Amino acid sequence: MSSSSFKDKVFIVTGASTGIGRATARALAAAGARVVLAARSEEALAQLAAELGGAERALAVPTDVSDSDQCQRLIEDALAHFGQLDGLVNNAGMVVSGYFEHLQPGDMAYQFAVNYMGVVYCTQAALPHLKQSRGVIVNVSSVAGLIGTPSAVAYSASKAALNALGRALWAELRPYGVGVVTVCPYFTSGVELGRKAIKRGDSLHGGAKGAARVAPGTQTAEQVAAAIVKAAARRPRLVVLSPIGRLIWRLDRALPGLVDWVMVKGLSRRRL
Ligand SMILES: NC(=O)c1ccc[n+]([C@@H]2O[C@H](COP(=O)([O-])OP(=O)(O)OC[C@H]3O[C@@H](n4cnc5c(N)ncnc54)[C@H](OP(=O)(O)O)[C@@H]3O)[C@@H](O)[C@H]2O)c1
Questions:
Q1: How far is the CA of 272 from the centre of ligand 1 (A)?
Q2: pLDDT at residue 263, as a whole number
């Protein structure tokens, strides 16, 4: 599939109410695709569906991806409305922010329920239809899943699991002509992720200081969306975003001890 052949293809985008998902839905629609918008915020989805051309071009399906029945219904509604499915962008996600010792019972399970099981539920329900269309699955992961991120340990672990899922599925589904791409954004602006984070105690992420500071290498949601659309067309196995994100990823593979040392040093300076 090339991005010029997105015309009238049908893509589901989860987490489409804000941030990267909303920008991705807009970018796919601009490339000619019809889009199914999923998230929990009904009003935001309805507004976006209207903006993207109404019922003929966009369908809003309020969905909590941590609920397998709702994911099944999302796929059924998409099929009933548009009659085909060519792509699934598993983008919905949230952050439980805080040191491991401060996490409350249920935090880790909830983090995985949204960021990992949400992808599993949507992908399992969509797979028969994507095999039929030889379509594509794009999982929006994170650089945090390529390296261990202190004080965002639950998030980091959920994205690492997603990376392993994507890698295994890439091989498993290749003989069927179904593409599986893992996109790992670095810090991204124009999103709600930090503001909506569940915060436990002290954290390097998502706090007032974190929100005010723009890390070098930060990309806009629109830049990340453009990379997702390109990835859906070209279907590489893994895309690591932003020059700084790629530098960290390459350094970690070449000199893992260095990245670990920087983590420990940075952490102990802020915490002790
Ligand atoms: N921002 C970054 O720096 C960054 C970096 C790397 C990776 N990412 C990843 O990018 C993806 C998009 O995040 P974002 O940065 O664009 O943040 P965002 O603006 O907070 O978007 C998150 C989206 O996920 C949806 N969502 C959250 N929980 C959900 C649930 N249980 N069921 C269905 N939808 C749910 C939210 O909508 P509702 O609240 O309406 O449900 C929203 O549409 C996430 O997977 C995130 O981990 C972000």
A1: 31
A2: 85
Strand, helix or coil for residue 264 = helix
193, 198, 214, 248, best to mutate for ligand 1 pocket (most atoms within 8 Å of CB): 193
From 99, 110, 121, 155, the catalytic residue = 155
What is residue 215's predicted lDDT score, i.e. its pLDDT? 87
- Using CA atoms of 185, 190, 191, 196 in order, give the dihedral in degrees to the nearest 10: 140
Q: CA-CA distance, 15 to 38, in Å (whole number)?
A: 6
Q: How many CB atoms neighbour CB 243 within 10 A?
A: 11
Q: What is the pTM of this model?
A: 0.96
Place of tokens 């796919």: 28
With a cut of 50, which residues of the chain have pLDDT below it? 207-211
Phi, psi (deg, nearest 5) at residue 199: -105, 130
**Fold for the domain defined by 3-243:** Rossmann fold (3.40.50)
Supply the pLDDT for residue 160: 98
Q: Is 210 left (phi over 0), alpha (psi -120 to 50) or beta?
A: alpha
Q: Are 200 and 111 in contact (CB under 8 A)?
A: no
Structure token pair of residue 90:
């598993």
Structural domain spans, the chain:
3-243
- Catalytic residue flag (residue 121): no
Q: Which amino acid is at 111?
A: Q
Residue 193 Cα to ligand 1 midpoint, Å, equals 6
| 175 burial via Cβ count (<10 Å: 0-12, 13-18, 19+) | exposed
Q: How far is the CA of 196 from the centre of ligand 1 (A)?
A: 9
Asked if 129 and 83 count as a contact pair (C-beta separation under 8 A), the reply is no
